[in-house]
Amino acid sequence: MTKTILKALAGEVQDVPPIWMMRQAGRYLPEYRATRAQAGDFLSLCYNPELAAEVTLQPIRRYGFDAAILFADILLLPQALGADLWFVTGEGPRLSTITSEDELAQLKPVDEIDETLSPIYETVRILSRELPSETTLIGFAGAPWTVATYMIAGKGTKDQGPAHALKDGNRAVFEGILDRLTEGTIHYLSKQIEAGAEVVKIFDSWAGSLKGEDFRKYAVEPCRRITAAIKERHPGIPVIGFPREAGEGYVGFHAATGVDCVALDNSVSAEWAAKEVQKDGCVQGNLASTHMVTGGQALVDETRAIVKAFSGGPHIFNLGHGITPDADPDNVTRMIEAVRGG
Ligand code: CP3
């Protein structure tokens, strides 16, 4: 029997859409907080295959989601390429910056990244053994533009200003970083697939700050290159693209990149996306994650409205962005009941 997520990705329309949730393994769950405390800090958890597999499995046990997403982070790739990476509690990631020719030249070659990333592949192997047979295992990486915004600024930024400044000020270095990340991502995702990932997702969280020709060159084109390479090396492995807040850039994204599914954020309405995006293939999304905090009838109504809007085509139910630490775990149960129970 084919898994429901894989059916949706193959274009099948199902009465009940399969469901999983971005950041489903996370701080809103007491069992996650306990395992994270056991691991020490966040990065120690990412690089501990047994514990990373354990937190990946926790939301599957609790909720029976149709997919599990590998527990890791998009910033492990720059770390594997030689950037220093650490997390400041309450603030987020910090990295050593890269903005010059010299710093670009110091990045490690792609064939050395496995020295750092091999524990991640081990997590994938454990999961592919331990997941229930109906659950799909999703691997992932950040899109080159989004990862570059953190490498260039050395941290998360509201407007990705430093990355835009490098793009406009020293295009050769900027494009050199994107190229290295594109090659690294192809290698990293291929290794995840060889270890047992059945689907891969490319997170372009800051795609929305690229406009016009920049969107085409630095969001669409890297995603197209990565998808083409994955499809050539691993025929049959579906790819999900997430050009968050792309707005009109969502239109035609399936065809321009070759992805099997386009993940939608909350800035677009389900009715609009059903007409303009789902006509080209499977879509994923897009309940606002704030409903996981506020709950109530609005959560149920909005969940049903999204299921209905996308019922004419292939759809994977998800949030429009990751669930937040202040979410109530019971609201996740209500969302799943509203999707599955109608
Ligand atoms: O979805 C999942 O459950 C899979 C695991 C996953 C994590 N991060 C775990 C994580 C995935 C797919 C990501 C992607 C990621 N990481 C993105 C793209 C998606 C998005 O959210 O926009 C980005 C931009 C990052 C970088 C990152 N990692 C930031 C900015 C932060 C700090 C913000 C925060 O929530 O604290 C992280 C930390 C992080 N990554 C956590 C988790 C569960 C929280 C760490 C903790 O336990 O303290």
UniProtKB/TrEMBL annotation:
The keyword DNA repair does not apply. Its EC number is 4.1.1.37. It is found in: Cytoplasm. It holds the Pfam family URO-D. Substrate binds at R23, Q24, A25, G26, R27, D73, Y150, S205, H321. One of its GO terms (cellular component) is cytosol. The record marks D73 as: Transition state stabilizer. Residues 18-27, 138-154 form the Uroporphyrinogen decarboxylase (URO-D) domain. Pathway: Porphyrin-containing compound metabolism; protoporphyrin-IX biosynthesis; coproporphyrinogen-III from 5-aminolevulinate: step 4/4. It catalyses: uroporphyrinogen III + 4 H(+) = coproporphyrinogen III + 4 CO2. GO terms for molecular function: uroporphyrinogen decarboxylase activity. Gene3D superfamilies: 3.20.20.210. Belongs to the uroporphyrinogen decarboxylase family. Homodimer. HAMAP family: URO_D (MF_00218). Catalyzes the decarboxylation of four acetate groups of uroporphyrinogen-III to yield coproporphyrinogen-III. This is Uroporphyrinogen decarboxylase. It comes from Pseudaestuariivita atlantica. The lineage of its organism: Bacteria, Pseudomonadati, Pseudomonadota, Alphaproteobacteria, Rhodobacterales. The gene is hemE.
